Amino acid sequence: MAERILVVEDEPLVAQLVSLNLTHAGHQVEIAADYPSGLAAICRPDGFELAIVDVMLPGGDGFELIKEARGQGVGFPIMMLTARNEISSKVRGLDVGADDYLTKPFDVAELLARVRALLRRAHTAPTLTGHPLVTLGKCWIRFDTGQALTNEGELSLSEKELKLMELFVGAENEALSRTDILEEVWGMDAFPTDRTVDNFILRLRRLFEPDPEHPVHFVTLRGRGYLFKR
Ligand code: CA
After folding, report:
1. Cβ 219 vs Cβ 226: under 8 Å
2. Which of 41, 174, 184, 230 has the most CB atoms in a 10 Å sphere around its CB?
C-alpha cells in the first residue's frame, strides 16, 4: 500500500522537490503551505502515515504544530525539516514529539532513507507489543523488560541491542543493509560506522547462536548486509 505523507512546507521549490521524490518512491503526497492548513491536515483522522514539517511557517512554527498534533493524539512519525542547524532546535524538535530531524539543504537520498526508516519502524512497533517474547532455540528475549536468556545466562540487553533485535524480528527473512541498520538503530544520535554494526552482530551471535562460528539466525549476506531467521 502506498503510504500517505503530509508535507507542511511553505517554500514551493522545497515542497515540490520533496513531493516529487516521495511520489516517485511510491507514496501519496499532500502539501500544506502554512500553519493553519498544516495543523488541520495533520490532525485529520486516518489521514496520513507520516508527516514532514518545516519549522518556519506562515502563521506559526513547526514546533508548535507538532506539539499541538501530538496533544491531539497524532501518533504517526513526524520528521522536522529546517534551515536551522543549531543543536537546540534539534533538541526542541525531539522534545515536542518529532521523531527525526533533517536540516536544509538536505540530500534527497538521505531524506528518502530516513522516511523509509521511520515508516518501517512504525510498521514493526505494533507486532512487538503484540508479541513481547521472542524465542530463539532455547534462548528468549523479552522486549517489555529487556531481559534475555542467552548462552551466557540471563542478562539485560542494552538499549541498542534491544533496538537491533526489534529491527531484526520486525524484518524477519529480509535482507538489511548496514546502512538500514545504522539508520534505524543509531538514527541521528551518533556517528557509528559499519564496523559498529558488525561488532553488535558478533555480540548477538555470541549470545544467541547455538554455534556462533556458524550462524543460523544472524546470517551474513555477502556484500548486502544481514538477514535474520528464527
Ligand atoms: Ca519555511
Report:
1. yes
2. 184
pTM, rounded to two decimals: 0.60
What is the DSSP code (8-state) at residue 183? I
Q: Are 125 and 117 in contact (CB under 8 A)?
A: no
Q: Is 46 helix (H, G, I), strand (E, B) or coil?
A: coil
What single DSSP character describes residue 34? S
Rounded to an integer, what distance in angstroms lies between the CA atom of residue 226 and that of residue 133? 22
Query: Taking the alpha carbons of 66, 62, 3, 129 in that order, is the dihedral positive or negative?
Result: negative
Domain boundaries, the chain: 4-124, 133-228
CA of 14 to the centre of ligand 1 (A): 9
Rg of the chain over Cα atoms, rounded to whole angstroms, equals 19
Model confidence over 47-104: pLDDT tens digits? 899 999 999 999 999 999 999 999 998 989 999 988 766 667 777 777 788 888 888 8
Calculate how far, in angstroms, residue 183's C-alpha sits from the geometric centre of ligand 1: 26
CA–centroid distance, residue 56 to ligand 1 (Å): 4
Q: Which of 2, 3, 52, 61 is nearest to 32 (CA)?
A: 52
Q: Which fold has domain 4-124?
A: Rossmann fold (3.40.50)
83 C-beta neighbours (distance < 10 Å), count: 13
Class in CATH terms, 133-228: mainly alpha
Q: Quote the CA–CA distance of 104 and 14 in Å, as a whole number.
A: 9
